[in-house]
Design goal:
single chain, 289 residues, alpha/beta, 5-stranded mixed sheet, 45% helix
Length: 289
């Protein structure tokens, strides 16, 4: 071990002068070594800060220290999560504020059993799908958004937006999901008990596609937690930070967030900090071998 390093590691226990004498070195040499080492440490921290700042900006200022740390590891930069968190606190790098969210139970009659039963994992694409509707405020009025998520990759594979929260909205979202991996025959589709999903037209469309319907129990928002979580993320990381003048502006912005960022770039903790697209691509590569 370097003598100066030994002195630094034991400086709280022994006087610097005494250690310098015993080791046959000088105090001035030790202080010069400490100065150089401190300079290298600051330089290293500065370089790490630049990378952290870059990753944070690329995440649209939504990543906290866990995701920033995992992205650093993905890029081959070795560091501890604790160090990343410390730098982010010091430099006041904080993800966008998340607003509280509420869910409201439906008073509709259940039309299908809860086959999903909060099992939010799947062994392959097109096995389990979850859907829901949310609404986005614009200066022109409400924009209603229906989405379909594949639980295997957590990718949004169906998206439909319109001026009314009607059955056409949810059918169009499910219709968009079909081309991802061919037909949806044999898939399980889970939703809440909203009137759009319990309508005869939606059930008929699902039957035509060979899709089995599953629905949440009354007042149990956690039965559709994966989709609730996605809409929460969409709103807190994007929608609540925008002021949409028109529905068309909101439509384009939401599509870009989902397709370009959420599906392809945003690290997902449930996927071991991979993106939905990476998870899907890995599955394709596996079955191709």
């Amino acid at each position: 071990m370097n003598k100066f390093m030994f002195m630094k590691q034991n400086s709280n226990e022994f006087p610097i002068g005494r250690m310098a004498k015993v080791l046959g070195t000088s105090r001035s040499g030790f202080y010069e070594f400490s100065k150089r080492r401190e300079g290298k440490r600051k330089q290293s921290e500065c370089m790490l800060f630049v990378k952290i700042k870059s990753i944070f900006e690329e995440s649209r200022k939504t990543y906290g220290s866990p995701r920033v740390h995992r992205e650093l590891i993905r890029q081959g930069i070795a560091c501890s999560r604790k160090r990343v968190a410390k730098i982010m606190r010091k430099e006041k790098i904080q993800p966008k504020m998340r607003k509280k969210w509420k869910t409201f139970p439906s008073d509709k009659t259940v039309k299908a059993p809860n086959y999903l039963d909060q099992e939010f994992t799947a062994s392959a694409p097109n096995r389990k799908l979850v859907s829901d509707i949310t609404y986005i405020k614009t200066m022109e009025g409400w924009l209603y958004v229906a989405g379909v998520m594949d639980l295997f990759s957590r990718k949004i594979i169906g998206l439909s937006m319109g001026v009314e929260p009607n059955t056409d909205l949810v059918i169009n979202a499910l219709r968009q999901a079909s081309p991802q991996w061919g037909d949806l025959k044999g898939a399980l589709h889970h939703s809440d008990r909203g009137c759009q999903y319990t309508s005869r037209r939606f059930k008929d469309y699902a039957d035509e596609q060979g899709i089995t319907l599953s629905m949440s129990a009354k007042g149990k928002c956690y039965d559709n937690a994966a989709m609730e979580s996605f809409f929460h993320t969409l709103k807190t990381e994007h929608v609540h930070l925008c002021a949409f003048k028109t529905r068309e502006e909101a439509r384009i912005s939401i599509f870009e967030y989902i397709e370009i960022f959420y599906n392809r770039k945003r690290l997902h903790s449930t996927l071991d900090y991979k993106t939905p697209q990476e998870t899907e691509d890995s599955w394709v590569n596996r079955i191709a071998q």
